[in-house]
Amino acid sequence: MSFERLHAILGAIEPHYQSSERQQLQRILEIWHEIVNDAIADHAQPTAIQRNILEVATESPVWTQTLVFERPRLLKKIRERLAIDLSDVRFSTVQWRPQTAETPVESDPWQSHPSRIPEQSSEVQTQLALFSNAKSSFDRWSSIVQSRAQHLPLCPECGSPTPPGELDRWSVCAICAAKC
Questions:
Q1: Long-range contacts of range 21-25, CB-CB < 8 Å, 24 or more positions apart?
Q2: ∠ CA(152), CA(156), CA(158), 5° rounding?
Q3: What values do phi and psi take at 145, rounded to 5?
Q4: Global pTM?
Q5: Residue 90: pLDDT above 90?
Q6: Is residue 88 part of a domain?
Q7: Domain limits at 9?
Q8: Chain centroid to CA 91
Q9: 64 and 123 co-located in one domain
Q10: DSSP alpha helix (H) spans, 36-133
């Protein structure tokens, strides 16, 4: 199957599939503070509805566990208030995003991670957004990755392009370091 045919299929079904789920999620988000109290709303946020399952991001595993016990009550409230027929609610910390950015960018662990390659410009993301089909986007992304890798030092173990931070820290790339 070519990228073009896959893109056409997904493009045809996406509006039908996602529009009702997006509307349902929007309705839930509008009254989320009423469904749960403010204390819970500060630590749990609905993120998506997929196949009639509401996905809720939680701040920590403790909140996940706590809300698992509240699942039947939450489902009942949502069904009564909005007449949305959800089959389940799932809680996870994976998609948690704090409501306010309290931590400065400098304290982000990724900023000092040895595998990080500093971004050259925001132009790359703008260029990727210009391509409408998957194949042209992939080709553009591949060329960007290859051009970045041209200037990276090589791992002495496997010979692959390696961020300098990894070589400083482990003397080899992260993959070779993991093998040891």
A1: 21/48, 21/49, 21/50, 24/49, 24/82, 24/84, 25/49, 25/54
A2: 90
A3: -60, -45
A4: 0.47
A5: yes
A6: yes
A7: 3-92
A8: 15
A9: no
A10: 38-41, 61-82, 123-129
Q: Which of 62, 92, 122 is the last residue of a domain?
A: 92
pLDDT tens string 52-88: 899 999 999 999 999 999 999 999 998 888 888 889 9
CB of 21 closer than 8 Å to CB of 55: no
Q: Where are the alpha helices (DSSP H) in 42-150?
A: 61-82, 123-129, 134-149
Q: What is the DSSP letter of 109?
A: G
Q: Beta partners for 92? A: 57
What is the per-residue pLDDT across 111-154, written as a single tens digit (0 to 9) for each? Answer: 677 677 766 555 555 555 555 677 877 888 888 888 888 888 99
DSSP structure class, residue 106: G
Task: Indicate the Cα dihedral angle 14, 95, 149, 159, nearest 10°.
Answer: -120
- Number of domains into which the chain is organized: 2
**Cβ proximity of 67 and 54 under 8 Å:** no
Q: Which residues pair with 89 in a beta bridge?
A: 54
Query: Could you tell me the two tokens for 116?
Result: 């990080």
With a CB cutoff of 8 Å and minimum separation 6, the contacts of 130 are none
What are the C-alpha distances in Å from 3 to residues 17, 109, 121? 20, 36, 28
Domain membership of residue 19 (yes or no) is yes
Give domain status of residue 127, yes or no: yes
The half-sphere exposure of 12 on its side-chain side, counting CA atoms within 13 A, is 6
